[in-house]
Amino acid sequence: MKQLLCVTLVIFSWALLLSSCGRDLGTAQGVAEEFVDQHYVQIDLPKAKAYAVSIALEKVNEEIRLTAGQQIDASTRRPKVNYQLLEKKESAGRASFLYEGTIQSDDGTSFTRKWLVTARKEGTQWRVSNFTESD
């Protein structure tokens, strides 16, 4: 009985952990954070593009064009990127989110950037319509 209780507790803990890690892509903030993860953390522009429309889509397409031929794979040294939400403004069909990102390179140096991500509702789905980066 004690062993069954332990197994049940472990399964419940894993389920809770996994559900808290998932993002609700049906919300403006969920889509904005998935975009930031793909664009800035994972550096996967094609995946970031899936969440973009309008000016954001044009910007991502231009970044893809400018980085064509630059292979980013498992052997590529990537910086460690963490970010936090500083401010959000939401209305029925539009939302904006200001994030502060800390980028740390392998040599131990780091710097911060602010990312303003704007989202709008396209039919029933939220999409990133613009993004800007500043110091």
Protein described:
- This protein has 135 residues and is an alpha+beta fold.
- It has one domain (28-134): Nuclear Transport Factor 2, Chain: A.
- Helices cover 39% and strands 33% of the residues.
- It has 4 helices and 4 strands, in the order ααααββββ.
- It has helices at residues 2-21, 28-41, 45-49, 54-66; strands spanning 80-90, 94-104, 110-122, 125-134.
- The protein has a 4-stranded antiparallel sheet with strand order 1-2-3-4.
- A hairpin with a 5-residue loop joins strand 2 and strand 3.
- The longest helix is centred in the first third of the chain and has 20 residues, at 2-21.
- It is globular, with a radius of gyration of 18 Å.
- The N and C termini lie far apart (57 Å).
- Residues 4-20 have low confidence and may be disordered.
In brief:
The protein is α+β, with helices and mostly antiparallel strands and 135 residues long. It has helices spanning 2-21, 28-41, 45-49, 54-66; strands at 80-90, 94-104, 110-122, 125-134.
Record the SSE blueprint.
Elements: H1 2-21, H2 28-41, H3 45-49, H4 54-66, E1 80-90, E2 94-104, E3 110-122, E4 125-134
Antiparallel strand pairs: 1-2, 2-3, 3-4
